[in-house]
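Action item from last meeting closed. Structure (262 res):
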């Protein structure tokens, strides 16, 4: 308890402060999803419902310290955010060093990495992590700046997959993609205007980095120019575009299908 790193995984020292996740549903869901936690704070005298009972029971089973505080103290800790009498302290996520993630992936028979270019919604990040783990990716990397990090919200949305999939932060995404290319990967960017149809992506069976653009603007110019190919997902003309995490799931499912039938 209290760590997000799987056994045997080396991590960078955390640079961010611990996060306090609040609200009865979010806290119960986070504990259910095995989000690492260092303390559960419960306000004295609150009405206890099933969610509070479940949170206390799950925290107790996991050995997470359960601390009773008065409501004023919890107000102070949360900065006045509506907390419903409960808060879960979540330690900073320990990212994998990018060099280690890349080196470990090259040892796989069919390496597959996912890169995120400016995805800012932690729920989208969590959903992509979940899909990447489900469809056999060996790691995920994203920029340190102007992008969502692995917060408690992202971890919860990943349904625990954040414990199984190595995630790295990089200072320069373009440079990281070039390092992948030098290591033998092809880099494929998802792009609504891409010239390669996803269902004709022969490179799916090769060492591959799938790049997913941001929710609004898609791939940035430099990242798009670095990609070896731009891949589009065929859709009905009436649909403009897919959410970033949905697009990633569709693409990863097709890549996994091709790999199992190759």
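Sequence:
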């Amino acid at each position: 308890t209290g760590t997000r790193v799987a056994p045997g995984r080396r991590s960078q020292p955390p640079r961010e402060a611990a996060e306090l996740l609040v609200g009865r549903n979010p806290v119960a869901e986070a504990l259910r999803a095995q989000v690492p936690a260092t303390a559960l704070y419960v306000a004295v005298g609150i009405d206890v419902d099933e969610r509070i009972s479940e949170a206390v029971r799950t925290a107790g089973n996991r050995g997470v310290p359960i601390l009773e505080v008065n409501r004023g103290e919890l107000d102070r800790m949360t900065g006045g955010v509506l907390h419903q009498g409960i808060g879960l302290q979540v330690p900073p996520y320990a990212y994998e060093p990018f060099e280690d993630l890349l080196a470990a992936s090259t040892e796989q028979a069919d390496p597959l990495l996912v890169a995120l270019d400016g995805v800012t919604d932690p729920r989208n990040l969590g959903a992509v992590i979940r899909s990447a783990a489900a469809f056999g990716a060996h790691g995920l990397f994203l920029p340190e700046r102007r992008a969502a990090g692995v917060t408690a919200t992202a971890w919860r949305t990943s349904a625990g997959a954040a414990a199984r999939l190595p995630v790295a932060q990089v200072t320069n995404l373009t440079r990281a993609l070039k390092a992948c290319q030098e290591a033998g990967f092809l880099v494929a960017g998802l792009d609504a205007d891409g010239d390669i149809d996803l269902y004709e992506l022969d490179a799916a069976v090769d060492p591959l980095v799938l790049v997913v653009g941001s929710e609004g603007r898609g791939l940035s110019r430099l990242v798009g120019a670095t990609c070896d190919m731009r891949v589009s997902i065929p859709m009905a003309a009436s649909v403009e575009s897919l959410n970033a995490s949905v697009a990633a799931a569709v693409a990863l499912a097709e890549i996994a299908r091709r790999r199992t039938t190759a």
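Note appended to the action item: The longest helix spans residues 244-261.
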